[in-house]
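Quick one:
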Amino acid sequence: MKTLTQKILASLVLFLVLATTISTAQAACLSPLEAQKAAESGEIRSFDQVLAQAGIDDSVKILSRQVCDEGGRLVYIVGIFKDGQAQNLVLDAQ
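Output:
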């Protein structure tokens, strides 16, 4: 029974993270193609570079990612699941 409760709780947390990411995505975010072109042109760092600098390794499950303008700076908004917890990270893309 405890496992079922943990799964339900994890699903609820995941839903909240995705809902937050979606609401954030509506505020001046790049499309996936625009983000890819920005990384290829050097306007922003690659997602892998940003994750490495933040110390995020393969043990962390990436739930979502988006490049958004936050106060005139481009950032990656990343939904992650680590150690049984879901959270959003805001990582500098430039």
